[in-house]
Task: structure prediction
Amino acid sequence: MCQSTLTVPAGHGKTFQVSKGQFITVIDSEGQQAADFVAVYADNLDEKLSPVHTRQHLRSIFFKPGDVLWSSENRPMLRVVTDTNGVHDANVPACDRTRFSIDFGVEGHRNCVDNLLEGMKAHGVTYFSLPEPFNLFQNGPVTADGRMEVTDPSSKAGDYIVFEALCDLICAVSSCPQDIIPGNGLQVTPIEVQVSNSYLAEVSHVVNA
Result:
């Protein structure tokens, strides 16, 4: 079995390529850490993983094992295979510089948009073509009156979600740097990503002390 593992440092991002039929496992190494996840078609950067189109196909704002995540051209891109936590978000945009400067008065704070672009731009992805993210492990409940909230994740150390790639992809993951308001337990921690040629029934992971 061919397997590669990469660690996304706390508050930073990593970009990687995946071939059709491979499996992507995203692991919350220490728990309560949101991970923004994006992907584009390797042979067409204009076609990207789309939360909007996925919500339309699923008729739901949430996703679960067995569901397919769809592209901006209405093609299936990823299938959710296994999920040990079950709480993720597909509504909230990635945090950016203005989020921290305008909302929190903090300049130069690391953010998910910059984290995702750092590696993706080498493949030709720009600020304007960067996909909206699927926010793995992010706890974004919708209130009874229809308002969106963001609170600390319910994920525990070692929780993971597994996707099957349905096409060749360029992907990126950001360990969300939000440490001012709830969203990561006010402590930013690493995320681990494993890419393998076959489904891993038991996932090995590194839990950082």
User: Anything to note?
Assistant: The CA atoms of residues 16 and 49 lie 15 Å apart.
